[in-house]
Amino acid sequence: MTMIDAQGLARSFQAPQGEVNAVRGVDLKVEDGEIVGFLGPNGAGKTTTLRMLTTLLRPTAGTARVAGCDLLSDPVGVRRRIGYVAQGGGANPAEVVANELLLQARLYGMSKSEAGPRIADLAERLGLGGLETRLIGSLSGGQRRRLDIALGLVHRPPLIFLDEPSTGLDPTSRNQLWDHIRGLRDELGATVFLSTHYLDEADALCDRILIMDQGAILVEDRPEELKNRVSGDAVTLEVAAADVPAAQDVVRGLAGTRAVNVTGQTIRFRADHSSRSMIEIMRALDARAVDPISIQVDRPTLDDVFLTLTGQSAAATSARAA
Amino acid sequence: MQTLRDTLLVFENQLRFTFRYKITIVMGLVQPVLYLLLFGPLLTKLGDMGRPGDTWQTFVPGVLVYLALFGAGFCGFGIIADVRSGVIERLRVTPVSRFALLMGRVIREVAVLLVQSVIIIAVGLLLGLRANVLGILSAVILVVLLGTALAALSLSLGVALKSEDQFAPLLTSATLPIMLLAGILLPMTLAPTWLDVLSRINPLRYIVDAIRDLFADRFATWAVLEGTAVSVVLAVVCVAVGMRTFAKESA
To answer: What residues does the ABC transporter domain cover (chain A) (predicted)?
Structure first.
């Protein structure tokens, strides 16, 4: 089943300086069981798109089916089938953890007796065990975030939206959170649609990435494909001074290498990524009796992808948007 | 049925916070009781103030409306923190109806107002208020309708403004003229014509006067009819406004 099928979703706002097109005609499809990342700098329109898909914001144009229900004609049906974890969370700091989870379960129509085991299971799964009687305002950032996710999961939605889930977390909490997010799909069978402005997060979690900038989706693909699309691997080869000319010949002579750049004993170049390409390079060097001192291969990061696509780095775009 | 269940669920949740901070119910009572104790006795020397009924029958209704205005009327203050912490948005993604989200909170305010009204009427009776049960019951119904209207309006204002810094000055500057023009402290029968006419744009004036007639055992009067009509219309309109605000995207 297609979990999200949006066509031409757009949203404009009236601002003092005129009409602002926050999102301009987004088409997207998310299949059952995928983890899809929505990547882009601050102000790209990710949150606005997410708020439209979760029934919080009415699109000014376009249609969508979310979790099998029509966004415009059956928003309540959509709400029943999705979980949404907002950027800033949504737990009441003045409430106690267990009460908040119980309220949430009951708002989704569960009875107290149905909710009990469900909440216990969730607390266990998300590492909230033992925190049930704590005041939400007193939780740590990581605990709070896991509670937010638990609140979005009480009704076992087949589709979960996470808006910048790891913002503000320390590296350990972040890694834990990633494990939990993978668990949503692997253990609960849920489809996850998350937004992030961290390239490494999208890379680590997602089967597929949509890159958004200035209200439109620039590109969508698997993280690996996106990286291939850019420029191939960055290869750094170091050889003995006497071997430099031969090594340079070899590198230039191979198919799929480019941007060869020699400084001293170091030869840097780009090579199309394939699991065999390094073996071929090594064999060719061997054939000319060149014995490399070291060879290093770096996969392009999504930052490189972003740079190629938007002409500026993700950091620069978000600085502009801020 | 589902909506009723959801409304009660939100109400129950809100009520738990009320019980946790019981002090707020008492605090809300301090000023009205002070008015009864320290201001009411001054009026007894003024006689009937141009109205049927005695001083307490004229003054206690004013205090009840004061209670609604400064209690339920300010409840929007409390929702701002919930808007900011994302609680309202989280609730809006659940299948619960917007009516339930609003009314659960409104009913909590009305319940608090009801308890406070009973206390005020009891204190009034001790001070010399004479009113029969039917009069008191119908007056309480009008207070409940007014409380519903003011709570719904205040909550939508809180949700729309999203900032205590804007909410507080706006409300304090709006409530003073509303209170004075309702003839809460002294009835508008004492007012010069221009002030009397001006006060008629204030819906609360009709409600105070209706409650005064009810306390004075006068049921079949224009004032009762007007006050009842005004409080019903006000409640319906304000709840509709509140629902619109809760359904609105920016909320």
So the answer is: 4-239
* DSSP-assigned letter for residue A110: -
With residues binned 3-state (H G I as helix, E B as strand, rest as coil), the percentages for chain B, rounded to 5, are 80, 0, 20
> Do A2-227 and A232-298 have matching folds?
no
List, for residues B7-16, the tens digit of each pLDDT value. Answer: 999 999 998 8
Classify domain A232-298 at the CATH topology level. Answer: Alpha-Beta Plaits (3.30.70)
The distance of B87 to chain A (nearest Cα, Å) reads 4
Question: DSSP letters along B68-96, please?
Answer: HHHTGGGTHHHHHHHHHTTHHHHHHHSS-
Q: Dihedrals φ, ψ of A163, to 5°?
A: -95, 110
- CATH placement of domain A2-227: 3.40.50.300
Angstroms from A191 CA to nearest CA on chain B: 17
Q: What is the pLDDT of residues A181-211, one digit of tens each?
A: 999 899 889 999 999 888 888 888 999 999 8
Burial of A221 (0-12, 13-18, 19+ CB in 10 A): middle
Of A56, A58, A99, the CB nearest to B93: A56
Q: Residue by residue, what is the 3-state secondary structure of A270-283?
A: EECCCCCHHHHHHH
Residue A12 has phi, psi (to 5 degrees) of -120, 150
How much is the ipTM here?
A: 0.86
